[in-house]
Automatic annotation (TrEMBL), chains A, B:
Transmembrane segments: none annotated. The lineage of its organism: Eukaryota, Metazoa, Chordata, Craniata, Vertebrata. It comes from Apodemus speciosus (Large Japanese field mouse). Residues 7-215 form the YjeF N-terminal domain. Coiled coil: none annotated. Pfam families: YjeF_N. InterPro entries: YjeF_N_dom (IPR004443), YjeF_N_dom_sf (IPR036652), YJEFN_prot_NAXE-like (IPR032976). It comes from the Eukaryota. This is YjeF N-terminal domain-containing protein 3.
């Protein structure tokens, strides 16, 4: 099974068999992604400027997780801004957008093509554009353009868990920090960035066994662990 | 405004204005409640027997939070068991029940009337029977009977945030640990237990100001703070 189809089967298991809700999973994963940011870039170690985080959210579920991540980053006293390259028809996406808007998280109306402007304005970027099953070539025009810009940035790039797109093609965005739900073997060999986190502490033991997930030991109430 | 109607107005604001979902709020609050348990009763300080937690879940939203709390307690390596005194027709309640069942968290078919049996079998009890707006007198027979039993226990009692019922009447259950979302003034004066935690870090700043919530300073990524 490829990494992407394995991720899809894992999600189906959680939704259909365990009756997790999409809203619930997105909230758990957005929270875990934000916690991973705090571990890779602890607030006390950052200058005011470095606390500014650009979260780029695609129209699918990955983007919804990005929106939840941005909200938690705000709660953790980072300074997120959001850019959504494409409109989403998803009600969950819309509700999470409203939460962010009403918490005064700025939304950019466009992404500067001049990457120096982004490098100068933000401390890091969270790439929540594509889900694990979506290849760059299949992405719509605005998402592909946004990813092409992200590729050229010098500031740290922080993806959610699109582990499978991490090193599959020359075109893929190369992250500095990786967050995996399932620690897929296919990505670990490609990843050469600084931090690799595993979220997915909430994944029930039986599901871990079924999918052969070798998840690390988590400490205390931590929802992510460093590999 | 009474504590209960204030809590209801706060929830309406979050649901209607901020477009939080019920599933999302229940997940956030269940997680925060479980984290509060870990702070009041840290796992390394407990014997194996003390790690057993009886979570008593009512049929309304408070019970749904209890179910989410039980699931997180299991993830945090406590040993929760669940008792639901009354059937719930709520789909969210049912889904959260399935998550717990499939994670092999035991459900009791009845609550022993002999309190010594409960005192002997569990290290602590989480009371998620009634919501903040529900008075004991209005509760249905099975819930009232369960609460009458909980009142007579000697092991530590850990309610969610039914702060308003904390000391309003002689009949109310007197908790050892209190978890408030909104730190209502009405409860603080009555509470004489060991720990008082405030959850609600996720509550947006504007909502805190609107409702005059004086929430404490949270540390790092903590979702609860001790008062």
């Amino acid at each position: 099974m490829s990494g992407a189809s394995e991720a899809a089967a894992l999600e189906r298991e959680l939704l259909d068999e365990y009756r997790f809700g999409r809203q619930q999973l997105v909230e758990i994963c957005g929270h875990a992604s934000a916690v991973a940011v705090t571990k890779a870039f602890p607030l006390p170690s950052l200058s005011r400027k470095q606390r500014t985080v650009l979260v780029v959210c695609g129209p699918e579920q990955n983007g919804a997780v990005g929106l939840a991540c941005a909200r938690h980053l705000r709660v953790f006293e980072y300074q997120p801004s959001i850019f959504c390259p494409a409109h989403s028809a998803d009600a969950l996406h819309r509700d999470l957008t409203t939460q962010c808007e009403k918490m005064d998280i700025p939304f950019l109306s466009f992404l500067p093509a001049e990457v120096r402007l982004i490098d100068d304005a933000y401390g890091l970027v969270v790439d929540a554009v594509l889900g694990p099953g979506v290849r760059l070539a299949e992405a719509g025009g605005p998402c592909a353009r946004a990813l092409a810009t992200l590729k050229r940035l010098s500031i740290p790039l922080f993806p959610r868990w699109d582990a499978e797109t991490g090193g599959d093609t020359k075109d893929a965005v190369q992250p500095d920090v990786l967050v995996s739900l399932a620690a897929p073997k296919s990505c670990a060999s490609h990843f050469s960035g600084r931090h690799h986190f595993v979220a997915g502490r909430f994944v029930p033991d039986d599901v871990r066994r079924k999918f052969g997930l070798h998840l690390p030991k988590y400490t205390g109430t931590d929802c992510v662990a460093s590999l």
